[in-house]
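Thread title: Can someone regenerate the structure for this chain?

I was given the following input by a collaborator and told the matching structure tokens would be attached. They weren't. Posting the sequence so someone can regenerate them.
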Amino acid sequence: CLPVVVTPVGSLGEIVSDGKTGLVATSMAPNCLVDEISYMVENYEASKQMGENARDFVVEKFNKDKWIKSTINAYKEAMK
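Best answer:
Regenerated them for you:
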């Protein structure tokens, strides 16, 4: 599992938990991205852990069965 480095644009900073499931750069400046990517390369164990955490997050939050159930419940609520 690989961790991600994202820029603070849109909802990316809300999806990626900085230091837990990946890294959120402080700006979109190229040097900020270089710093974050360099950290990932130089800190293998931390990067590996962030990648595993990210996979766990995706499996938990974006589970197909949960989405289906949530969608069905939303339609049922809308029909009331």
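The mean pLDDT is 92.
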